[in-house]
Write a structure and sequence with these properties.
The strands form 4 sheets. Strands 1, 2, 3, 4, 5, 6 and 17 form a 7-stranded mixed sheet that branches. A 5-stranded parallel sheet has the order 8-15-9-10-11. Helix 1 runs parallel beside helix 8. The protein is about 25% helix and about 30% strand. The chain contains 8 helices and 17 strands. The chain is α/β, with parallel strands linked by helices. Bound molecules: flavin-adenine dinucleotide.
């Protein structure tokens, strides 16, 4: 059975969706956040770099955010997966995996991105504990420590100078042919950065803390942390299914206010940006909420409601 016609259905309850819910709740809009609860940073113990919440666990962050949004009576939450969306601007119909149905005037996709980690034995055990993807998120905790960067090709030349801001003790493992140019190899040599091309056999660890990286040729590289670049995929196929332009990298195309090419459909957070930080996602959620609210108010104003 379909519920009341909501002003906004928010798909995804991470920092982007939750901040949007807060802003829309304060703007007196009827909002439901449908969230299946699989946030991108669930593997980590702490969220860093978010003013007033530096070091808070991802689950505690979401608990506080939900508590704050819930203070506004027009905001509600549903733990479920949105599986299909029909309709157009003014009346979208959303159905969920548990068979619930919702209808809303506007839609906000805040579905995040998902990381496909590398297929290296031992990586899953350390991911989120001592192996990370973003030095802005976790570089401080690994400062001055011996690290291994798993990366190849042009990405190495981005990673190496970046990581050098946190530690000078790092080694590059390309896990196969390095795909570097002679100039790039020379640049790394000048900076005394060791580069190993042999495939990685395993990552050895104790209680999630890396001890060493072992290569197929028998080389062992002692280290206490790892940075690597995962393959990113979009958090949900629904934006594409409703006709949103989605890049090859899985990012939904939006304007500065989160508006997609589909009337009445907005997107915010990691899935609509190349800047993947909780505070950026929250900020995008707030901007999209303001734009949606403006559109709803203007629609009503024009109808002289
Ligand atoms: C290992 C790791 C560590 C990180 N550390 C930090 C850090 O320290 N500081 C920092 O600022 N950032 C950090 N990040 C990045 C941060 O997690 C993201 O930038 C942030 O979570 C993006 O928020 P979001 O709201 O866009 O998406 P998410 O937080 O991923 O939330 C999206 C939500 O939408 C839900 N969803 C998706 N599809 C559907 C659907 N069809 N129906 C219902 N729900 C759906 C998902 O289950 C999820 O709950 C880290 C990321 C990783 C991977």
């Amino acid at each position: 059975m379909e519920h009341q016609l909501l002003d906004v259905a928010i798909i995804g309850g991470g920092p982007a969706g939750l901040n949007a819910a807060l802003v829309l709740g304060r703007a007196r809009k009827n909002v439901t956040v449908i969230d299946e609860g699989r946030p991108r940073n669930a593997v980590t113990r702490e969220t860093h770099g978010f003013l007033t919440r530096d070091g808070t666990s991802p689950s505690e962050f979401r608990r506080i955010a939900k508590e704050e949004s819930s203070a506004y009576p027009s905001v509600s939450f549903v733990e479920d997966t949105a599986v299909s969306i029909a309709g157009t601007d003014g009346h979208f119909q959303i159905t969920t995996a548990q068979g619930k149905a919702f209808a809303s005037k506007k839609l906000l996709f805040a579905v995040g991105m998902k990381d496909r980690t590398l297929d290296i034995p031992g990586l899953a055990e350390v991911y989120g504990k001592s192996a990370f993807i973003c030095p802005y998120c976790d570089g401080w905790e690994l400062r001055d420590k011996p690290l291994v960067i798993i990366s190849k090709g042009a990405d190495v030349m981005h990673f190496a100078p970046l990581i050098s801001g946190w530690t000078s003790r790092f080694t590059i493992c390309t896990n196969g042919p390095d795909e570097l140019t002679d100039e790039q190899r020379e640049e790394l040599r000048r900076h005394r950065v060791p580069v190993f091309e042999a495939p990685i056999r395993s990552i050895d660890s104790d209680d999630g803390i890396v001890r060493q990286v072992v290569l197929e040729d028998g080389t062992t590289i002692p280290c206490t942390g790892i940075f690597f670049k995962p393959e990113l995929v979009t958090g949900s196929d629904l934006p594409r299914a409703v006709g949103c332009h989605v890049s090859e990298a899985g990012t939904v195309a939006v304007d500065d206010f989160g508006k997609t090419n589909v009337p009445g459909v907005y997107s915010a957070g990691d899935v609509a940006s190349r800047l993947h930080q909780a505070i950026t996602a929250a900020s995008m959620g707030a901007f999209a909420a303001a734009a949606i609210n403006n559109e709803l108010n203007m629609d009503a104003w024009k109808r002289n409601e």
